[in-house]
Amino acid sequence: MCDSGASEHFTFELSDYSSYEPFSSARTAKTADGTSQLLGQGTVIMNHKLSNGSSHLVKLYPVLYMPKLNIRLISNGMLCKQGLLATQDDLRIIFSYRDGAKQTYLEGYPSTPGTTLTFAYGTITHKNPSTVPPVSLGNSVNAKSIVTYDTWHKRLGHPSSDVFSKFEKHVKGFEKGVLPKPNPHLRCIGCLKGKMKAQTYKESNKRATRPFELVHMDLKEYPSLSYNKYKYILVVVDDFSSYVWLGFLKHKSETITVFQRWYAKVFAENIRIKYIRSDRGGEFVNKAFHDLFSKYGITHQTSAPHIHQQNGRAERMIQTLNDKSEAMRLEAGCPRSWWQFSIETAAHVYNRTPLKRGNWKTPLELNYGDVPDVKYFKVFGCEAWVFIPIEKRSDKLSPKSELMTFIGYESGSKAYRFMNSNNNLIISAQATFFEDRFPRLGKNEEITTKDSAPILLDQPNVPDVQGRLDSPSPAWGRRMNRGRTLDR
User: Fold this and answer.
1) In the chain, how many domains are there?
2) What is the DSSP string of 289-319?
3) The domain containing residue 86 runs over which residues?
């Protein structure tokens, strides 16, 4: 039965499930007759008959197992939450895609003419759930759906409500007037887990007057190795715009090498840096850096011994990025070694976030003069069904898409990064996203670190992703007013 009052899908038959996960202990649900126990949940697949005589597979998840029920319930609200549009009259209820074609996904009809109760007809089948795509929003990553404040809050790296309110005016990708307002009673678990208040230090009001006049840099060590066996990140921040670049290192000794690659790229664009500020760490205060700065006429400013707060802008940037990174990673239930992907995503989002000290312009606009477009943003760690090109399939009967986890944006390409079930990094531009589902949540598994290159599905010219400060620029539709492609 298609039920407008049910908050979830329910079945009373354990044999309905194609895949099933029992709860560790029974849960209690309120019903019209009192309470009833829920023993587990899983996926139910139905070969659904439509009024035009055709049929197709409908995948319902999550479907809760309630043995005391005497009827199967399909939640109208859950289908709409997952992106379908419901239309109903006295003859039927139709759930269709929101991609403009209004293609029907599921139909319900009264069992007896004149009644208001509607039923969806078909037979339960037991296909492998991974071979049947879930409720789709269409065939394009740009398919339209209702996007809530909560979803955008996660896409944008968990900004404050004050910062969030400035996006519609200062970036592209939002339709005017349709962005929902925040719920003042909503508590974000990601923010609670990943953000915390730390002692602050008085910030200097002095700012550089142009991009690259003053650049801050600092090194951060992480407690565990990343997916690609990195241990450190080099953070470089432009003082004027707050634009940030990241470099990944396996050893502190690589600091000068990573910085040189980045500076060579900046120097090639006829950009001159006047001052670079860092703490007095040995990775910065050494002969190699001294000679490099002398060669390019850069003045190296350092903090006083043991007063790292004097390098406060770099310190605060690291804290800001780490807060965003951990809020996204922890809410999605991703393993610790994926900090590499979440911190990169945090930097990508931060550079496209309006800043109060920049009169609510984004670092990207302040540094390069172009307003960013964020319509391609997705929630870190969410479920994605990634299209598998025909040449990558084992045979003609293989599924056309595969369930993966979204982990960021690929540098140098209009493509996304995904992690498949074998923990291989996948690069692809074609996927359907389900931003309220997180495949890694609750698994608590440790992921083996790797040195292997990513698997490219549909972007054969994507550059090497090992370097970051020195990697080619992304092709997310942004061009600099100097005629060169923007960096991350």
Assistant:
1) 1
2) HHHHHHHHT-EEEEPPTT-GGGGHHHHHHHH
3) 2-126
